[in-house]
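Continuing the batch. This is chain 6 of the set; chains 1 through 5 are on the previous pages. Same settings as before, nothing changed between runs. Recording input and output for traceability.
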Amino acid sequence: MNLDHLIQIKTNNVKPLKGRVLLSEPFMDDYYFGRSVVLLAEHNPEGSFGVIINKKISTRLSDLLPDFANTDLKVYLGGPVETNRLFYIHTLGNIIQDSIELMDGLYWGGNLDEVTELSVKNMLNDENFRFFLGYSGWGAEQLSTELLRNSWAVTNIDKDQIFKTKSDLLWKKLTLQLGRNYRLWNKFPANPATN
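Output for chain 6:
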């Protein structure tokens, strides 16, 4: 049974699609998903997947891939699935073969040899590339069910918001854009015990 038609009843009426983001509700107390912003790379009847784009970790790309020793790119926590694999988004789709466009000017993946070559040429930076350890995934109808429970709100984002907004402020900025029905999300403390 496809639940997508019911989503508009309880949520902010924006349907999940490739290139949109999921904003976790503020009460979600989870290492991965608490106050997370998940960029959807795919959403279809078989399931959904994407990466958390607002949780920077202390690991550097050069710590994980020796071929990237000359770059100081940060790595982000992508999600709880396949945490031993790297995934990446970028704005260089026109020069990296096999990239998949998620939205205007933002791309998923592509030929890693070409990415390595761009790194050697010092063409990768925090304003055009992001790497993620792991990804976030949902089985068929799982995300639709979570949306009906108001675990997530769906909204649009553009590449500039992803690359130019400080990652620790992204959730708050995007939830403020959701409108008055979500105004309380930002007032709820990240740690209620300290309130």
